[in-house]
Amino acid sequence: MSEAVTRTVTTPPGLLASLDPLLREWLPRQRWFAGKGRPVTGFGLVAATELLPPTAKLGLYHLLVRAHQQVLPGHGAPEQPGDCYQLLIGVREALPPRLAPALIGHVTQGPLAGRTVYEALHDTRPADLLLEALRTQARIGGLRFERDPHREIRPGLVPRLVTAEQSNSSVVYGDTFILKLLRRVVPGINPDLELPLALARADCPRVPPPTAWMVADREPPAGASQPAEPYVLGVLQPFVQGATDGWELALRELAKGEDFVAEARALGRATAEVHTALARALPTVTLGHSQLRLMVDGMTERLEAAVHAVPALRPHASGLRSAFTALDDLAAEGRTWTAQRVHGDLHLGQCLRSPAGDWSLIDFEGEPARPLAERRMPQPTVRDVAGMLRSFDYAARSVDPAQPEWADRCRAAYCSGYAEAAGRDPRTDPVLLRAYETDKAVYEVLYEARHRPEWLPVPLTAVRRLAASGLT
Ligand SMILES: Nc1ncnc2c1ncn2[C@@H]1O[C@H](COP(=O)(O)OP(=O)(O)O)[C@@H](O)[C@H]1O
Ligand SMILES: O=P(O)(O)O[C@H]1O[C@H](CO)[C@@H](O[C@H]2O[C@H](CO)[C@@H](O)[C@H](O)[C@H]2O)[C@H](O)[C@H]1O
Protein backbone atom coordinates (compact mmCIF):
# COMPACT_ATOMS: atom_id res chain seq x y z
CA MET A 1 0.00 0.00 0.00
CA SER A 2 1.32 3.42 -0.86
CA GLU A 3 0.59 4.90 2.58
CA ALA A 4 2.51 2.20 4.47
CA VAL A 5 5.39 3.53 6.57
CA THR A 6 8.50 1.40 6.91
CA ARG A 7 11.05 2.31 9.54
CA THR A 8 14.15 0.36 10.53
CA VAL A 9 15.16 0.96 14.11
CA THR A 10 17.93 0.10 16.51
CA THR A 11 17.73 -0.26 20.27
CA PRO A 12 20.48 0.62 22.73
CA PRO A 13 22.67 -2.29 23.84
CA GLY A 14 22.16 -3.23 27.49
CA LEU A 15 18.53 -2.08 27.44
CA LEU A 16 17.09 -5.22 29.04
CA ALA A 17 19.88 -5.47 31.63
CA SER A 18 19.07 -1.97 32.77
CA LEU A 19 15.38 -2.84 33.20
CA ASP A 20 15.97 -6.28 34.73
CA PRO A 21 15.72 -5.45 38.46
CA LEU A 22 12.60 -3.34 37.91
CA LEU A 23 10.84 -5.93 35.76
CA ARG A 24 11.54 -8.71 38.29
CA GLU A 25 9.57 -6.74 40.81
CA TRP A 26 6.83 -5.35 38.52
CA LEU A 27 6.00 -8.18 36.11
CA PRO A 28 4.81 -10.79 38.65
CA ARG A 29 2.39 -8.22 40.11
CA GLN A 30 0.50 -7.84 36.81
CA ARG A 31 -2.85 -9.62 36.58
CA TRP A 32 -1.89 -10.93 33.12
CA PHE A 33 1.37 -12.50 34.34
CA ALA A 34 0.76 -16.20 33.76
CA GLY A 35 3.50 -17.66 35.95
CA LYS A 36 2.12 -16.69 39.36
CA GLY A 37 3.76 -18.31 42.37
CA ARG A 38 7.14 -19.02 40.75
CA PRO A 39 9.93 -16.49 41.30
CA VAL A 40 11.36 -14.87 38.14
CA THR A 41 15.03 -15.80 37.85
CA GLY A 42 15.93 -13.67 34.81
CA PHE A 43 14.89 -12.39 31.41
CA GLY A 44 15.81 -13.03 27.80
CA LEU A 45 15.23 -10.49 25.06
CA VAL A 46 13.20 -11.95 22.18
CA ALA A 47 12.80 -8.64 20.30
CA ALA A 48 13.16 -4.95 21.02
CA THR A 49 11.84 -2.11 18.87
CA GLU A 50 12.44 1.54 19.57
CA LEU A 51 9.15 3.24 18.71
CA LEU A 52 10.25 6.68 19.97
CA PRO A 53 13.88 7.54 20.72
CA PRO A 54 14.30 8.58 24.36
CA THR A 55 14.34 12.35 24.14
CA ALA A 56 14.12 14.38 27.36
CA LYS A 57 10.32 14.21 27.23
CA LEU A 58 9.38 10.72 26.10
CA GLY A 59 10.87 7.49 24.79
CA LEU A 60 9.01 4.32 23.84
CA TYR A 61 10.15 0.71 23.49
CA HIS A 62 8.22 -2.30 22.34
CA LEU A 63 9.71 -5.39 23.97
CA LEU A 64 9.13 -9.10 23.70
CA VAL A 65 10.71 -10.52 26.81
CA ARG A 66 11.05 -14.11 27.94
CA ALA A 67 10.65 -14.48 31.70
CA HIS A 68 12.67 -17.35 33.12
CA GLN A 69 11.16 -18.73 36.29
CA GLN A 70 12.03 -21.13 39.03
CA VAL A 71 10.33 -24.50 38.40
CA LEU A 72 8.31 -25.76 41.33
CA PRO A 73 6.81 -29.27 41.62
CA GLY A 74 3.60 -29.55 39.55
CA HIS A 75 4.36 -26.46 37.45
CA GLY A 76 5.78 -28.11 34.33
CA ALA A 77 9.02 -29.61 33.10
CA PRO A 78 12.32 -27.88 34.04
CA GLU A 79 13.43 -27.71 30.40
CA GLN A 80 10.41 -25.62 29.34
CA PRO A 81 11.44 -22.15 28.13
CA GLY A 82 9.92 -19.24 30.05
CA ASP A 83 6.80 -17.46 28.80
CA CYS A 84 7.23 -14.57 26.36
CA TYR A 85 5.48 -11.29 27.26
CA GLN A 86 4.68 -8.20 25.22
CA LEU A 87 5.65 -4.97 27.00
CA LEU A 88 5.28 -1.36 25.95
CA ILE A 89 7.76 0.60 28.02
CA GLY A 90 7.61 4.39 28.24
CA VAL A 91 10.65 6.38 29.30
CA ARG A 92 10.49 9.86 30.86
CA GLU A 93 12.67 12.11 33.00
CA ALA A 94 9.86 12.15 35.55
CA LEU A 95 6.27 10.92 35.55
CA PRO A 96 3.42 13.42 35.68
CA PRO A 97 0.96 12.59 38.54
CA ARG A 98 -1.68 11.25 36.11
CA LEU A 99 0.75 8.47 35.14
CA ALA A 100 1.65 7.50 38.72
CA PRO A 101 -0.33 4.20 38.56
CA ALA A 102 1.73 3.24 35.48
CA LEU A 103 5.11 3.46 37.23
CA ILE A 104 7.48 0.54 36.72
CA GLY A 105 10.44 2.20 38.46
CA HIS A 106 13.52 4.40 38.30
CA VAL A 107 16.42 3.05 36.26
CA THR A 108 19.80 3.16 38.02
CA GLN A 109 22.08 1.54 35.44
CA GLY A 110 22.70 1.13 31.70
CA PRO A 111 21.55 3.26 28.78
CA LEU A 112 18.41 4.57 30.54
CA ALA A 113 20.11 5.35 33.89
CA GLY A 114 18.44 8.27 35.65
CA ARG A 115 15.14 7.86 33.74
CA THR A 116 11.75 6.68 34.91
CA VAL A 117 10.12 3.79 33.05
CA TYR A 118 6.41 3.08 33.02
CA GLU A 119 3.63 1.06 31.43
CA ALA A 120 3.12 3.16 28.31
CA LEU A 121 -0.41 2.02 27.47
CA HIS A 122 -1.63 4.43 30.17
CA ASP A 123 -0.21 7.32 28.17
CA THR A 124 -1.94 9.07 25.27
CA ARG A 125 0.98 9.52 22.87
CA PRO A 126 2.08 5.85 22.83
CA ALA A 127 -1.54 4.68 22.46
CA ASP A 128 -1.99 7.19 19.59
CA LEU A 129 1.14 5.88 17.96
CA LEU A 130 -0.22 2.30 17.91
CA LEU A 131 -3.52 3.34 16.29
CA GLU A 132 -1.72 5.48 13.73
CA ALA A 133 0.61 2.58 12.90
CA LEU A 134 -2.39 0.30 12.38
CA ARG A 135 -4.19 2.92 10.32
CA THR A 136 -1.20 3.48 8.04
CA GLN A 137 -0.12 -0.18 7.94
CA ALA A 138 3.31 0.77 9.22
CA ARG A 139 6.31 -1.50 9.50
CA ILE A 140 8.62 -0.50 12.32
CA GLY A 141 11.61 -2.76 12.80
CA GLY A 142 10.18 -6.28 13.10
CA LEU A 143 6.68 -5.00 13.90
CA ARG A 144 4.11 -5.25 11.15
CA PHE A 145 0.77 -3.41 11.36
CA GLU A 146 -1.96 -4.75 9.06
CA ARG A 147 -5.53 -3.76 8.41
CA ASP A 148 -8.58 -4.89 6.49
CA PRO A 149 -8.48 -2.55 3.46
CA HIS A 150 -12.29 -2.47 3.38
CA ARG A 151 -12.61 -1.01 6.87
CA GLU A 152 -11.91 2.63 7.66
CA ILE A 153 -9.98 3.87 10.70
CA ARG A 154 -10.41 7.57 11.39
CA PRO A 155 -7.22 9.29 12.62
CA GLY A 156 -7.05 11.03 15.99
CA LEU A 157 -9.49 8.90 18.01
CA VAL A 158 -8.89 9.56 21.72
CA PRO A 159 -7.49 6.52 23.60
CA ARG A 160 -8.36 5.26 27.07
CA LEU A 161 -6.94 2.18 28.75
CA VAL A 162 -9.51 -0.39 29.93
CA THR A 163 -8.92 -0.77 33.66
CA ALA A 164 -10.92 -4.00 34.20
CA GLU A 165 -9.02 -7.06 35.39
CA GLN A 166 -7.96 -8.86 32.21
CA SER A 167 -5.74 -11.63 30.90
CA ASN A 168 -4.48 -9.09 28.34
CA SER A 169 -4.64 -5.27 28.03
CA SER A 170 -7.08 -3.25 25.96
CA VAL A 171 -7.30 0.37 24.81
CA VAL A 172 -10.58 1.91 23.63
CA TYR A 173 -10.26 4.57 20.93
CA GLY A 174 -13.01 7.19 20.90
CA ASP A 175 -15.68 4.58 21.70
CA THR A 176 -15.19 3.40 18.12
CA PHE A 177 -12.52 0.70 18.36
CA ILE A 178 -10.94 -1.46 21.00
CA LEU A 179 -7.35 -2.68 20.63
CA LYS A 180 -6.49 -5.79 22.58
CA LEU A 181 -2.78 -6.25 23.15
CA LEU A 182 -1.96 -9.84 23.93
CA ARG A 183 0.39 -10.14 26.87
CA ARG A 184 1.69 -13.70 26.89
CA VAL A 185 2.50 -14.36 23.26
CA VAL A 186 3.44 -17.46 21.32
CA PRO A 187 4.43 -17.69 17.66
CA GLY A 188 1.78 -18.99 15.27
CA ILE A 189 -1.79 -18.40 14.20
CA ASN A 190 -3.71 -16.96 17.13
CA PRO A 191 -7.38 -17.99 17.36
CA ASP A 192 -8.27 -14.53 18.71
CA LEU A 193 -7.55 -13.20 15.22
CA GLU A 194 -8.14 -16.34 13.17
CA LEU A 195 -11.69 -17.10 14.32
CA PRO A 196 -13.15 -13.57 14.19
CA LEU A 197 -11.62 -13.19 10.69
CA ALA A 198 -13.22 -16.46 9.60
CA LEU A 199 -16.55 -15.42 11.13
CA ALA A 200 -16.39 -12.03 9.40
CA ARG A 201 -15.84 -13.82 6.09
CA ALA A 202 -18.84 -16.02 6.90
CA ASP A 203 -20.94 -12.85 7.54
CA CYS A 204 -21.63 -13.83 11.14
CA PRO A 205 -22.83 -10.64 12.88
CA ARG A 206 -22.37 -12.11 16.37
CA VAL A 207 -18.64 -11.34 16.56
CA PRO A 208 -16.99 -7.91 16.06
CA PRO A 209 -14.87 -8.24 12.89
CA PRO A 210 -11.11 -7.56 13.14
CA THR A 211 -10.35 -4.18 11.60
CA ALA A 212 -6.56 -4.27 12.01
CA TRP A 213 -3.91 -6.32 13.76
CA MET A 214 -0.24 -6.22 14.63
CA VAL A 215 2.36 -8.97 14.45
CA ALA A 216 6.07 -9.37 15.13
CA ASP A 217 8.05 -11.14 12.43
CA ARG A 218 10.79 -13.54 13.49
CA GLU A 219 14.09 -14.38 11.91
CA PRO A 220 13.99 -17.99 10.64
CA PRO A 221 16.48 -20.25 12.43
CA ALA A 222 19.77 -20.67 10.51
CA GLY A 223 19.34 -23.06 7.56
CA ALA A 224 15.54 -23.21 7.80
CA SER A 225 13.69 -23.33 4.47
CA GLN A 226 10.39 -21.96 5.83
CA PRO A 227 9.88 -18.48 7.29
CA ALA A 228 9.38 -18.53 11.06
CA GLU A 229 5.79 -18.00 12.18
CA PRO A 230 5.19 -14.48 13.51
CA TYR A 231 3.82 -13.54 16.92
CA VAL A 232 0.29 -12.10 16.81
CA LEU A 233 0.49 -9.14 19.20
CA GLY A 234 -2.83 -7.35 19.04
CA VAL A 235 -6.21 -7.03 17.35
CA LEU A 236 -8.28 -3.89 16.73
CA GLN A 237 -12.02 -4.38 16.41
CA PRO A 238 -15.18 -2.25 16.54
CA PHE A 239 -16.15 -1.25 20.07
CA VAL A 240 -19.73 -2.24 20.98
CA GLN A 241 -20.87 1.08 22.45
CA GLY A 242 -22.83 1.03 25.68
CA ALA A 243 -22.52 -2.75 25.95
CA THR A 244 -22.88 -4.63 29.21
CA ASP A 245 -21.24 -8.01 29.62
CA GLY A 246 -23.27 -11.07 30.56
CA TRP A 247 -21.54 -11.45 33.92
CA GLU A 248 -22.45 -7.94 35.02
CA LEU A 249 -26.02 -8.33 33.78
CA ALA A 250 -26.45 -11.69 35.51
CA LEU A 251 -25.18 -10.28 38.82
CA ARG A 252 -27.49 -7.29 38.46
CA GLU A 253 -30.53 -9.53 37.95
CA LEU A 254 -29.47 -11.78 40.83
CA ALA A 255 -29.17 -8.75 43.13
CA LYS A 256 -32.71 -7.70 42.17
CA GLY A 257 -33.99 -11.26 42.72
CA GLU A 258 -34.85 -11.39 38.99
CA ASP A 259 -34.72 -14.28 36.57
CA PHE A 260 -32.23 -14.35 33.70
CA VAL A 261 -34.09 -16.96 31.70
CA ALA A 262 -34.89 -14.90 28.59
CA GLU A 263 -31.29 -13.67 28.34
CA ALA A 264 -29.94 -17.17 28.94
CA ARG A 265 -32.10 -18.48 26.08
CA ALA A 266 -30.89 -15.64 23.81
CA LEU A 267 -27.30 -16.47 24.76
CA GLY A 268 -27.92 -20.11 23.85
CA ARG A 269 -29.17 -19.03 20.44
CA ALA A 270 -26.20 -16.68 19.92
CA THR A 271 -23.74 -19.45 20.83
CA ALA A 272 -25.41 -21.85 18.39
CA GLU A 273 -25.29 -19.25 15.61
CA VAL A 274 -21.57 -18.74 16.12
CA HIS A 275 -21.01 -22.51 16.15
CA THR A 276 -22.99 -22.93 12.93
CA ALA A 277 -20.97 -20.16 11.24
CA LEU A 278 -17.67 -21.66 12.44
CA ALA A 279 -18.69 -25.07 11.10
CA ARG A 280 -19.41 -23.44 7.74
CA ALA A 281 -16.19 -21.43 7.68
CA LEU A 282 -13.65 -23.98 8.92
CA PRO A 283 -13.21 -27.76 8.69
CA THR A 284 -15.17 -30.20 10.83
CA VAL A 285 -13.96 -33.70 11.68
CA THR A 286 -15.39 -36.90 13.16
CA LEU A 287 -13.89 -38.08 16.42
CA GLY A 288 -13.66 -41.85 16.76
CA HIS A 289 -12.29 -43.83 19.65
CA SER A 290 -8.61 -43.05 19.09
CA GLN A 291 -9.20 -39.27 18.95
CA LEU A 292 -11.56 -39.45 21.90
CA ARG A 293 -8.95 -41.38 23.82
CA LEU A 294 -6.44 -38.55 23.25
CA MET A 295 -9.02 -36.02 24.43
CA VAL A 296 -9.85 -38.06 27.51
CA ASP A 297 -6.12 -38.51 28.23
CA GLY A 298 -5.73 -34.72 28.08
CA MET A 299 -8.59 -34.22 30.52
CA THR A 300 -7.16 -36.84 32.87
CA GLU A 301 -3.66 -35.34 32.73
CA ARG A 302 -5.03 -31.88 33.51
CA LEU A 303 -6.93 -33.37 36.43
CA GLU A 304 -3.80 -35.07 37.79
CA ALA A 305 -1.79 -31.83 37.49
CA ALA A 306 -4.55 -29.88 39.22
CA VAL A 307 -4.83 -32.44 42.04
CA HIS A 308 -1.09 -32.12 42.54
CA ALA A 309 -1.24 -28.32 42.67
CA VAL A 310 -4.47 -27.95 44.68
CA PRO A 311 -4.71 -30.54 47.47
CA ALA A 312 -8.41 -29.70 48.12
CA LEU A 313 -9.18 -31.61 44.90
CA ARG A 314 -7.71 -34.88 46.16
CA PRO A 315 -10.82 -36.35 47.88
CA HIS A 316 -12.82 -35.89 44.66
CA ALA A 317 -10.24 -37.13 42.18
CA SER A 318 -11.67 -40.59 41.56
CA GLY A 319 -15.24 -39.28 41.14
CA LEU A 320 -13.97 -36.71 38.65
CA ARG A 321 -11.93 -39.30 36.78
CA SER A 322 -15.10 -41.37 36.33
CA ALA A 323 -16.58 -38.54 34.20
CA PHE A 324 -13.71 -39.07 31.74
CA THR A 325 -13.71 -42.89 31.77
CA ALA A 326 -17.47 -42.91 31.13
CA LEU A 327 -16.81 -40.92 27.94
CA ASP A 328 -14.03 -43.25 26.92
CA ASP A 329 -16.35 -46.23 27.47
CA LEU A 330 -18.95 -44.72 25.13
CA ALA A 331 -16.32 -44.20 22.45
CA ALA A 332 -15.09 -47.77 22.90
CA GLU A 333 -18.66 -48.93 22.14
CA GLY A 334 -18.37 -47.22 18.75
CA ARG A 335 -20.00 -43.85 19.44
CA THR A 336 -18.54 -40.97 17.38
CA TRP A 337 -18.78 -37.16 17.72
CA THR A 338 -18.47 -34.25 15.32
CA ALA A 339 -15.77 -31.73 16.19
CA GLN A 340 -15.23 -28.21 14.84
CA ARG A 341 -13.53 -24.97 15.85
CA VAL A 342 -15.10 -23.54 19.00
CA HIS A 343 -14.65 -20.49 21.23
CA GLY A 344 -12.73 -22.49 23.81
CA ASP A 345 -13.17 -20.29 26.91
CA LEU A 346 -16.79 -19.22 26.76
CA HIS A 347 -18.27 -17.67 29.88
CA LEU A 348 -20.68 -14.85 30.72
CA GLY A 349 -17.88 -12.26 30.71
CA GLN A 350 -17.21 -13.05 27.02
CA CYS A 351 -20.75 -12.13 25.98
CA LEU A 352 -21.64 -8.48 25.35
CA ARG A 353 -25.21 -7.21 25.13
CA SER A 354 -25.70 -4.03 23.11
CA PRO A 355 -28.24 -1.43 24.27
CA ALA A 356 -30.52 -2.81 21.49
CA GLY A 357 -30.41 -6.21 23.23
CA ASP A 358 -28.19 -8.05 20.72
CA TRP A 359 -25.56 -10.44 22.04
CA SER A 360 -21.98 -10.58 20.68
CA LEU A 361 -19.27 -13.05 21.64
CA ILE A 362 -15.68 -11.85 22.14
CA ASP A 363 -12.25 -13.17 23.16
CA PHE A 364 -11.61 -16.24 21.00
CA GLU A 365 -8.13 -16.74 22.45
CA GLY A 366 -9.19 -19.97 24.20
CA GLU A 367 -7.90 -20.87 27.64
CA PRO A 368 -4.67 -18.84 27.71
CA ALA A 369 -2.75 -21.46 29.68
CA ARG A 370 -3.16 -24.16 27.02
CA PRO A 371 -0.73 -24.64 24.12
CA LEU A 372 -1.75 -22.90 20.89
CA ALA A 373 -1.96 -26.13 18.88
CA GLU A 374 -4.37 -27.58 21.41
CA ARG A 375 -6.49 -24.42 21.43
CA ARG A 376 -6.80 -24.58 17.63
CA MET A 377 -7.96 -28.19 17.48
CA PRO A 378 -11.53 -28.99 16.40
CA GLN A 379 -13.61 -29.96 19.41
CA PRO A 380 -17.22 -30.89 20.16
CA THR A 381 -19.34 -27.73 20.51
CA VAL A 382 -20.45 -29.02 23.90
CA ARG A 383 -17.17 -27.68 25.20
CA ASP A 384 -18.44 -24.08 24.90
CA VAL A 385 -21.87 -25.05 26.20
CA ALA A 386 -20.22 -26.53 29.29
CA GLY A 387 -18.28 -23.27 29.80
CA MET A 388 -21.51 -21.27 29.82
CA LEU A 389 -23.27 -23.72 32.12
CA ARG A 390 -20.38 -23.35 34.56
CA SER A 391 -20.69 -19.59 34.29
CA PHE A 392 -24.36 -19.54 35.35
CA ASP A 393 -23.31 -21.62 38.33
CA TYR A 394 -20.48 -19.14 39.09
CA ALA A 395 -22.89 -16.21 39.06
CA ALA A 396 -25.40 -17.97 41.31
CA ARG A 397 -22.67 -18.93 43.78
CA SER A 398 -21.01 -15.55 43.90
CA VAL A 399 -23.98 -14.06 45.78
CA ASP A 400 -24.89 -14.58 49.41
CA PRO A 401 -26.93 -16.68 49.91
CA ALA A 402 -26.14 -18.78 46.81
CA GLN A 403 -29.03 -19.22 44.34
CA PRO A 404 -28.52 -22.69 42.80
CA GLU A 405 -32.12 -22.82 41.45
CA TRP A 406 -31.48 -19.56 39.57
CA ALA A 407 -28.53 -21.27 37.89
CA ASP A 408 -30.60 -24.39 37.12
CA ARG A 409 -33.23 -22.28 35.34
CA CYS A 410 -30.57 -20.41 33.33
CA ARG A 411 -28.79 -23.60 32.40
CA ALA A 412 -32.03 -25.16 31.11
CA ALA A 413 -33.01 -22.00 29.19
CA TYR A 414 -29.53 -21.70 27.65
CA CYS A 415 -29.68 -25.30 26.38
CA SER A 416 -33.21 -24.75 25.01
CA GLY A 417 -32.10 -21.60 23.18
CA TYR A 418 -29.10 -23.47 21.82
CA ALA A 419 -31.34 -26.31 20.62
CA GLU A 420 -33.72 -23.86 18.88
CA ALA A 421 -30.90 -22.41 16.76
CA ALA A 422 -28.64 -25.44 16.32
CA GLY A 423 -31.28 -28.13 15.90
CA ARG A 424 -29.71 -30.28 18.62
CA ASP A 425 -29.99 -30.05 22.37
CA PRO A 426 -26.68 -30.43 24.24
CA ARG A 427 -28.52 -32.23 27.06
CA THR A 428 -29.10 -35.20 24.77
CA ASP A 429 -25.42 -36.05 25.27
CA PRO A 430 -25.09 -36.07 29.07
CA VAL A 431 -21.87 -38.07 29.26
CA LEU A 432 -20.03 -35.68 26.96
CA LEU A 433 -21.50 -32.69 28.77
CA ARG A 434 -20.47 -34.00 32.19
CA ALA A 435 -16.91 -34.71 30.96
CA TYR A 436 -16.56 -31.16 29.62
CA GLU A 437 -18.13 -29.55 32.66
CA THR A 438 -15.74 -31.54 34.82
CA ASP A 439 -12.74 -30.54 32.72
CA LYS A 440 -13.81 -26.89 32.97
CA ALA A 441 -14.40 -27.02 36.73
CA VAL A 442 -10.94 -28.55 37.21
CA TYR A 443 -9.42 -25.77 35.06
CA GLU A 444 -11.29 -23.21 37.16
CA VAL A 445 -9.97 -24.69 40.41
CA LEU A 446 -6.42 -24.26 39.13
CA TYR A 447 -7.16 -20.82 37.68
CA GLU A 448 -8.65 -19.56 40.95
CA ALA A 449 -5.90 -21.11 43.07
CA ARG A 450 -3.35 -19.20 40.98
CA HIS A 451 -5.16 -15.92 40.34
CA ARG A 452 -8.02 -15.41 42.82
CA PRO A 453 -7.76 -17.82 45.78
CA GLU A 454 -10.81 -16.26 47.48
CA TRP A 455 -12.95 -17.58 44.59
CA LEU A 456 -11.77 -21.17 45.00
CA PRO A 457 -14.91 -22.34 46.87
CA VAL A 458 -17.03 -21.62 43.75
CA PRO A 459 -15.51 -24.25 41.42
CA LEU A 460 -14.86 -26.58 44.38
CA THR A 461 -18.61 -26.74 45.04
CA ALA A 462 -19.13 -27.78 41.42
CA VAL A 463 -16.32 -30.31 41.72
CA ARG A 464 -18.15 -31.98 44.61
CA ARG A 465 -21.36 -32.17 42.57
CA LEU A 466 -19.66 -33.44 39.42
CA ALA A 467 -17.58 -36.00 41.29
CA ALA A 468 -20.68 -37.38 42.99
CA SER A 469 -22.93 -37.35 39.90
CA GLY A 470 -21.29 -40.40 38.34
CA LEU A 471 -21.46 -42.54 41.48
CA THR A 472 -24.29 -45.05 41.60
N1 LIG B 1 -15.71 -5.28 20.86
C1 LIG B 1 -15.87 -4.87 22.11
N2 LIG B 1 -16.76 -3.90 22.42
C2 LIG B 1 -16.93 -3.46 23.69
N3 LIG B 1 -16.22 -3.91 24.73
C3 LIG B 1 -15.30 -4.88 24.49
C4 LIG B 1 -15.09 -5.41 23.17
N4 LIG B 1 -14.12 -6.35 23.23
C5 LIG B 1 -13.75 -6.40 24.53
N5 LIG B 1 -14.46 -5.53 25.28
C6 LIG B 1 -14.30 -5.29 26.73
O1 LIG B 1 -12.96 -5.55 27.11
C7 LIG B 1 -12.89 -6.59 28.08
C8 LIG B 1 -11.69 -7.48 27.81
O2 LIG B 1 -11.77 -8.08 26.54
P1 LIG B 1 -11.32 -9.58 26.30
O3 LIG B 1 -11.24 -9.82 24.83
O4 LIG B 1 -12.20 -10.51 27.09
O5 LIG B 1 -9.84 -9.55 26.90
P2 LIG B 1 -9.05 -10.56 27.87
O6 LIG B 1 -8.58 -11.69 27.01
O7 LIG B 1 -7.94 -9.71 28.35
O8 LIG B 1 -9.99 -11.00 28.98
C9 LIG B 1 -14.23 -7.33 27.95
O9 LIG B 1 -14.64 -7.92 29.15
C10 LIG B 1 -15.18 -6.23 27.52
O10 LIG B 1 -15.67 -5.54 28.65
O1 LIG C 1 -9.42 -13.69 31.20
P1 LIG C 1 -10.47 -14.48 30.49
O2 LIG C 1 -11.78 -13.76 30.45
O3 LIG C 1 -10.02 -14.97 29.15
O4 LIG C 1 -10.79 -15.83 31.33
C1 LIG C 1 -10.14 -16.18 32.53
O5 LIG C 1 -10.65 -15.40 33.62
C2 LIG C 1 -12.03 -15.61 33.96
C3 LIG C 1 -12.34 -14.77 35.18
O6 LIG C 1 -12.18 -13.42 34.90
C4 LIG C 1 -12.30 -17.07 34.27
O7 LIG C 1 -13.73 -17.24 34.42
C5 LIG C 1 -14.24 -17.79 35.63
O8 LIG C 1 -14.80 -16.73 36.40
C6 LIG C 1 -15.91 -16.04 35.77
C7 LIG C 1 -16.41 -15.01 36.77
O9 LIG C 1 -15.42 -14.04 37.02
C8 LIG C 1 -17.02 -17.03 35.41
O10 LIG C 1 -18.06 -16.36 34.71
C9 LIG C 1 -16.48 -18.15 34.54
O11 LIG C 1 -17.49 -19.09 34.29
C10 LIG C 1 -15.31 -18.81 35.26
O12 LIG C 1 -14.72 -19.81 34.41
C11 LIG C 1 -11.87 -17.94 33.08
O13 LIG C 1 -12.08 -19.31 33.43
C12 LIG C 1 -10.38 -17.67 32.80
O14 LIG C 1 -9.97 -18.42 31.67
Automatic annotation (TrEMBL):
It comes from the Bacteria. Pfam families: Mak_N_cap. It catalyses: D-maltose + ATP = alpha-maltose 1-phosphate + ADP + H(+). Keywords: ATP-binding, Carbohydrate metabolism, Glycogen biosynthesis, Glycogen metabolism, Kinase, Nucleotide-binding, Transferase. InterPro entries: Kinase-like_dom_sf (IPR011009), Mak_N_cap (IPR040999). The keyword Metal-binding does not apply. Residues 26-123 form the Maltokinase N-terminal cap domain. Pathway: Glycan biosynthesis; glycogen biosynthesis. Its EC number is 2.7.1.175. Belongs to the aminoglycoside phosphotransferase family. Monomer. This is Maltokinase. It comes from Streptomyces prasinosporus.
